[in-house]
Predict the structure of Putative ABC transport system membrane protein.
Amino acid sequence: MNEIEMAKVRKAAERADAGGYRRGGLSAFRLKVIGAVFMALSVASVTLVPLIFGVPTADNMTSLTVAVVCEIASWCAVPIYAWLLFDGWRHTRNRWRYWAQLFVAASVAGLPYDKIMTGQWFDARTHNPMWGLVFAYIVLVAVDWIGRKYAGAARWTLTALVIVAGVLWNLLLRIGVSQQVMYSGVITLAFVMVFYFLNQHENTMMFTAGLLGAVSCITPGIGVAFLHYRNGRLGYARPWTKWVFYALYPAMLLAGALLV
């Protein structure tokens, strides 16, 4: 084997190590399953836990502890879904259709989410975490467009303005606010931007994302650990499998809303 061939082999190995073609690891399907389990814990913390253990109060520490643990654990899903959003954006054949799918799923999830969180089927004071993905996607598309059209100071000024606008959308609309400490909409946007700007530098990207997760109530950092073992494959047994995941979170919320 000559030096050129050996160089090609090394490059192929480096691409595999970067998460592109690992034999083992976690496919997109498995990551979505893991994310769905964590999201189910969030729904359970405000629906099943009160039914099983009673209303979480200072006088019912068992229920309160279980509810808090479930909710905190569910935050592991934030970086997982942020990565799936970014990865879907860069591989989809129709980016506008992809956004429309997210928009429909977030809209459908809205009513049962409001019912669970506020007791009303519609409450404009809060919005479910899927809207964080919708807004993060808009910012991602805008930032990428700016990067292709502008350079230098103009690019980074416009990019900063778009990101700040995305943060404000999430804050003003209270996207995915949990326990008044986790602003999942803002954190989702932050993760997506980390993945966008650093995706060509695997180690730096994972380190930065892990640090962001650690300072974002710790458990999102655990979610980043799952991403380290991704293998870059879809892993779907059937083409229609992806549609199940779009419907899964709204279905969880609807089931939970019928219980409260």
User: Anything to note?
Assistant: The chain is about 75% helix and 0% strand. Residues 3-259 form one domain.
